[in-house]
Amino acid sequence: MKKLITLIFASILFSILAVSCEDISGTTPAGDSGTDPGTETPTAKPWDAVASGEIVQISYPASWSTETSLDSAGEIDWYKFQADEGYYELNWQDSLDPVSTSMTGDIEVTAYKADGSKISGPIDNGMADGISFTKDSDYIYIKVEGKDADTTGTYSIFFS
After folding, report:
1. 4: part of which helix (H) or strand (E)?
2. 2-21+54-159 maps to which CATH number?
3. Are residues 44 and 87 in contact, defined by beta-carbon separation less than 8 angstroms?
4. In the chain, where do the E strands start and end?
5. Which residues contact 76 (CB under 8 A, 6 or more apart)?
6. Can the peptide bond before residue 42 be classed as cis, meaning omega within 30 degrees of 0?
7. How far is 63 from 20, CA to CA, in rounded Å?
8. Which of 1, 24, 7, 3 is closest to 158 using CA atoms?
9. pLDDT reported for residue 40
10. Which among 96, 98, 100, 117 is positioned nearest to 108, based on CA atoms?
11. How many CB atoms lie under 10 A from the CB of residue 73?
12. What is the pTM of this model?
């Protein structure tokens, strides 16, 4: 078990160090094209009801990470960034992550294109699964919410 934890920690450390490079690479999970076939682009976007000042603008995804919290039941955190053409992998740590000892919230993450269509999610396990996608230039929106309606607590989210 100690070797497994060491291996997971080394993997996370390597991912963090790799973020300092501009080349982010990897693969999309098998069977996940990032979109649901046959779905239409929605006219209303999931973040339409959110005040613009409540959506955190990420200036440079390759070096971005944050440790924050859901302070009240039902709270939703929103992030957005201008995606350059390329590959992106978003991961997170929460209370169920075997490596994290300090995170107290259990979260799910969903990623959306600027037109409101879903890229992927909601996904619960951010270290094992995460969200991977290739994107042309456009805004990407990230929704972080509690796994359950009454979830509160801390989490860490980052690009790797």
Report:
1. helix 2-18
2. 2.60.120.380
3. no
4. 55-58, 65-70, 76-83, 86-93, 107-113, 118-123, 131-135, 138-146, 153-159
5. 50, 143, 144, 145
6. no
7. 6
8. 24
9. 55
10. 96
11. 11
12. 0.69
- The CA-based dihedral angle spanning residues 111, 44, 77, 32, taken in that order and rounded to the nearest 10 degrees: -20
Tokens 């860490």 correspond to 156
| Cα distances (Å, whole numbers) of residue 125 to 41, 49, 136, 139, 146 | 26, 27, 26, 24, 12
Q: Which residue has the tokens 């000892």?
A: 101
Residue 93 vs residue 15, higher pLDDT: 93
Q: Which long-range contacts (CB under 8 A, 24 or more apart) does 41-44 make?
A: 41/115, 41/116, 41/117, 42/115, 42/116, 42/117, 43/116, 44/116
Q: For residue 27, give the 3-state DSSP assignment.
A: coil
Task: Give the pLDDT score at 75.
Answer: 94
Cβ neighbours for 85, distance < 8 A, ≥ 6 positions apart: 135, 136, 137
- Return the pLDDT at 122: 92
